[in-house]
Amino acid sequence: MDRKKGVAYCGLACAVCGENADCAGCRKDGCKNKEWCKNFNCAREKGLDGCFSCEKFSERCGMLEKPRIHAFARFVKEYGEDKLLDCLEQNEKKGVVYHEKGKLTGDYDNFKTEDEIIAFILSGDKTN
After folding, report:
1. Taking each helix axis from N to C terminus, what angle separates 67-79 and 114-123, rounded to the nearest 10 degrees?
2. How many CB atoms lie within 10 A of CB 111?
3. Is 0.70 topped by the overall pTM?
4. In the chain, what is the straight-line distance between the N-terminal and C-terminal CA atoms, in Å?
5. What is the pLDDT of residues 10-31, one digit of tens each?
6. 51 Cβ partners below 8 Å, 6+ apart?
7. What DSSP assignment string belongs to 21-44?
8. In Å, what is the CA distance from 114 to each residue of 18, 26, 72, 92?
9. How far apart are alpha carbons 76 and 26 in whole angstroms?
């Protein structure tokens, strides 16, 4: 976990992403895909910390159409970025995997609803 990378504009957790070790994180211009990323460009144009700060957050656009990503952004909106990073760090120590090696999915993708994902973020309990 690299807390300095923080959370992306859309809510993805750059801090625990293992896809690109050289990436500084989305909000620090580290993402290679920022030119096409609707969430990156929109948040930057509006001067927002992230989609979670937008008055139109309930409108699912771009990456927020994906349940896990919207749940992460909603978590930041409701609890704050530090709380999300604290939970992800605790969960990582419990063996929770953000991304399976070579994939963009992990343990947080094993749920059907945002509420289930948020509960899992808070608990890190893989037995439920």
Report:
1. 60
2. 16
3. yes
4. 24
5. 999 989 987 777 888 888 877 7
6. 9, 10, 11, 39, 42, 43, 57, 64, 73
7. TT---GGGT--TTTTT-HHHHHHH
8. 23, 23, 9, 20
9. 15
